[in-house]
Design goal:
By secondary structure, the chain is α+β, with helices and mostly antiparallel strands. It is built from 5 helices and 11 strands; from the N terminus they run βββαββαβαββαββαβ. It has helices spanning about 35-50, 80-90, 110-130, 150-160, 180-190, and strands spanning about 5-10, 15-20, 25-30, 55-60, 70, 95-105, 130-135, 140-145, 165-170, 170-180, 195-200. The strands form 3 sheets. The protein has a 5-stranded antiparallel β-sheet, with helices on both faces. Strands 9-10-8-11 form a 4-stranded antiparallel β-sheet. Strands 1-7 form a two-stranded antiparallel ribbon. Helix 2 runs parallel beside helix 3 (about 110-130). The longest helix is centred in the middle third of the chain and has 19 residues, at about 110-130. The relative contact order is 0.18.
């Protein structure tokens, strides 16, 4: 069975998108994120930027193996904002992303159906204008060995085109290497079979 070790996300924060419906204005934004702390920072910045907006509705999804997601209606009728936004994240097949839609009320009520359409459309327009990229899911290993074994280790790293994240070259050497998830087991076995060299997976 082929191990899936790629995921889709956006390369950089999207440009602001404006969608209007019955005088209400919906400003849409997407950000690449990997922690909930980053999400709070982006939302706080938008609240400063759009002083006077009524609703800051958002949805996010983080993670590749363990997925964490949330949809927030921020005072709009239940499931009329956050879920339609999250639906677009799912339909584009993205993760490590936050979409925020900021609403300025225009005086006319849109009703739940109208709100669902407006939030969904804004999120969709944002993603259609964002640069979507594919990234690999990587695994990190720590390799420890005596300096005398350095040539053996380096030969494999070169052969297998492994990326070295950090290195400590002293009498006792330590390397942090990165490989794609689908190659991880094979790489582990190669180093694990070597005499006087130990390898361990980092979470």
């Amino acid at each position: 069975m082929e191990i899936k070790d790629t995921y889709k996300t956006i390369e950089s924060p999207s440009e602001e998108i404006l969608f209007k419906e019955k005088n209400s204005k919906f400003f849409g934004y997407a950000f690449p994120v990997s922690t909930t702390d980053e999400i709070k920072i982006h939302i706080d910045q938008l609240k400063k930027q759009h002083f006077g907006a009524v609703h800051f509705c958002y949805a996010y999804q983080i993670g590749t193996e363990k997925i964490e997601f949330r949809a927030n209606d921020d005072g709009e009728p239940s499931n009329s904002a956050g879920i339609p936004i999250y639906g677009q994240i799912q339909s584009f097949g993205l993760t490590n992303i936050l979409i925020v839609v900021v609403r300025f009320f225009g005086g006319t009520k849109l009703g739940v159906g109208g709100l669902i359409t407006a939030y969904k459309t804004t999120a969709q327009l944002v993603l259609e204008n964002a640069l979507i990229i594919e990234k690999t899911i990587d695994v990190q290993f720590k390799i420890t060995f005596d300096y005398k074994n350095i040539n053996k280790v380096m030969r494999i790293i070169k052969e297998k085109q492994l990326e070295i994240h950090s290195q400590k070259m002293e009498e006792n050497c330590e390397l942090l290497i990165v490989t794609r998830k689908k190659n991880a087991e094979r790489i582990f076995d190669i180093f694990d079979a070597l005499f006087e060299i130990s390898i361990s997976k980092l979470d």
